[in-house]
Amino acid sequence: MNIARLRGWGLATAISFSLFTAAVQANDEAEGVSNARSTVASRPNIVFILADDLGYTDIAPYGSEISTPTLSALAEQGVRFTNYHTAANCAPARAMLLTGVDSHAAGVSNIPELLAPEQRTQPQYQGELGDNVVTVAALLEGSGYHTYMAGKWHLGASPEKRPSRRGFERTLALMDSGADNWEQRPYIPLYDRANWFADGERITLPEDFYSSRFLVDKTIEFIDSNLQDGKPFFAYVPFQAVHVPVQAPQAYIDKYRGVYDAGWDSLRLQRRAGAVELGIVPADTAMVDMSTTDDWNALDEQRQRYEAKRMAVYAGMIEAMDFHIGRLVAYLKSRGEYGNTIFIFTSDNGSEASGAADQMAFAQTIGSRQLGYDSDYDRLGLKGSFNTIGPSFASASASPLSHYKFYAGEGGMRVPLIIAGEPVRQPGELNRAFAWATDITPTILALSGTALPGERYAGRPVLPLIGRDLTPLLRGEIERVYGEGDAVGYELTGHGALFQGDYKVVVNQAPLGDGQWRLFNIVEDPGETVDLAATQPALFQRMLSRYQQYQQENGVLPLPVGYTQMRQLFFNTLHKKSGEQILIFLLTLLLLLPFYVAYRMKKDVLR
Questions:
Q1: Are 520 and 530 contacting, i.e. CB atoms less than 8 angstroms apart?
Q2: Regarding predicted confidence, which is higher, 221 or 595?
Q3: What is each CA distance from 460 to 100, 131, 134, 392, in whole angstroms?
Q4: Which residues contact 20 (CB under 8 A, 6 or more apart)?
Q5: 10 Å Cβ neighbour count for 339?
Q6: CA–CA separation, 37 vs 5, rounded Å?
Q7: What's the predicted TM-score (pTM) here?
Q8: 3-state secondary structure of 483
Q9: What angle do CA 242, 77, 269 make, to 5 degrees?
């Protein structure tokens, strides 16, 4: 090794080496390490960063007031996609992101927590990655990459389904849909504990744990452990931010005190203006009023103060995530790896709306209080507290889009996507081409020079990738990767969508939707305000037929009679608990019932 490289590792004593030793090291580098570095130069490192439940305008490069300097810098050096879409909840999105295969075909039509028993008889409704798909990590590992993961997995918890068996060389993984960010505890009663695993084995988290800091610490540790061998690496960093419970260090929360005092309607308008100014959405973008958005002015001063702090914690959690991403960037720069690293940043789905505007709302309180959380104003966001932003601020998080997580509206499916590094031709540009979650894996494979999988992998048949390589868009070689006739379908618990060209047919079920299919031009009208079904009936019917074809090809099942997500989560929780736990759960339910009745009466009066 030469002295400059040793200095890069912080080994100040290198300057005292003898000339003879330096000559030997220089020779070693010339014959060995330089060859490895030339290999790296032709095969870049890839860092894939996944936020959780991040809304379309939640970061500064997309019009947010939240400070995200690291992501802003990556956006300036890369490409921002303004028409990128993903699944409306986490596990199906992660399945598509990591395999390039439709979520139903990959076995992950929904998160396992919301699957009905009668659905689980079908292979496409397992809630975990099937053996019929191969992950991008497995393909990269097979082609000579180190592969690392630190963060939320949620694609199967049994030994053979853990990330350490799906292509990741080193792992630190949360198996569940979410967990506390300050300590090792579950966030919903469905889980007995927060299930964290390292390299396939159960672990106990450190006492000073905060999720965003810890995940970046482990990522740096993994990268640093093999950096000397010169092989390129793939690092997958799926953050817990900003999944429920929304929590952040006090210093970050304090930065946003007073920022949200004007309420969610004001913020939704402000976010739209920011997105328009940046060119993220057209200047004439209109917005719908969502029925789940409360009247800010009808709240008393104490309630307004409380709701504003909930959003301040959310903003602090995003800025904290950005800060720790910045630590990873700084580390790579200090090791001389930054220039040869491609960054991909996105979110698994749109903003999360759980928790009504009143934190005493029944659905919010029963689980968190049973687990020992509080929601006191002074400690909101800190250790032991439970926080969400609720549907009203979620509508601002998704601004100017309609709907949010779990729904097929743009607010649930359209999220930021930033790709920075080589081979971006025009840094800082916006790309308005439609892109889909399954496109990430083929794009990573193309960037790394890794071949697509064949019909078989590791001795078993695997499905072909359906995603498109986005690298021609990064190079400015083409304007679209999907032609006018190409269709992309999607389904989640009866919510459905099909994208084709600039258009989208969509149906959203209750409680926010009405079960009616509609047609929108989502390029001109990303807010989904003008239904074109009546004025373009031929296109509407053609796209509905293509959606039916999608259902048949991917084994989409009709919903069980009486199915709702919350009802199924409730029964799945009861089914998993022991008799004593069920009794405690039902007693808690009974104790909180008066609060729920009072809450509903208050809501009726306000209406």
A1: yes
A2: 221
A3: 17, 8, 10, 47
A4: none
A5: 12
A6: 12
A7: 0.89
A8: coil
A9: 50
590 pLDDT tier (thresholds 50, 70, 90): very low
Other residues' Cβ atoms within 10 Å of the Cβ of residue 510 = 9
Position of tokens 């810890």?
A: 214
Question: What's the confidence (pLDDT) of residue 520?
Answer: 98
Nearest to 285 by CA among 274, 300, 293, 294: 274
pLDDT tens digits for range 218-268 = 999 999 999 999 999 999 999 999 999 999 999 999 999 999 999 999 999
Sign of CA dihedral 273, 279, 284, 288: negative
Superfamily of domain 43-554: Alkaline Phosphatase, subunit A (3.40.720.10)
472 vs 443: CA distance, rounded Å: 9
Rounded CA gap, 444 and 458, in Å?
20
Task: Give the model confidence (pLDDT) of 59-72 as tens digits.
Answer: 999 999 999 999 99
Q: What tokens were used for 354?
A: 């759980």
Distance, CA of 175 to CA of 435 (rounded, Å): 28
CA 125 – CA 260 distance, rounded (Å)? 41
Q: How many CA atoms lie within 13 A of 275 on its CB side?
A: 33
Q: How many CB atoms lie within 10 A of CB 590?
A: 9
110: closest CA among 15, 122, 190? Answer: 122
Residue with tokens 């399954």: 438
Quote the pLDDT of residue 242.
98
Q: Are 348 and 50 in contact (CB under 8 A)?
A: yes
List the catalytic residues: 90, 154
The amino acid present at 5, given as its one-letter code, is: R
Q: What residue segments make up the domains of the chain, in order of their start?
A: 3-39, 43-554, 565-606
One-letter amino acid at 576 equals K
Residue 20 phi, psi (nearest 5): -65, -45
The bridge status of strand 417-420 relative to strand 456-457 is unpaired
- Structural contact between residues 510 and 563, judged by C-beta atoms closer than 8 angstroms: no
Q: In the structure encoding, which two tokens stand for residue 53, read together?
A: 């439940």
- Least confident piece of the model among 333-347, 407-421, 580-594: 580-594
What is the spatial distance between Cα 591 and Cα 595, in angstroms, rounded to a whole number?
8
3-state secondary structure of 172: strand
- Token pair belonging to 591: 């104790």
d(Cα 374, Cα 384) in Å, to the nearest integer? 6
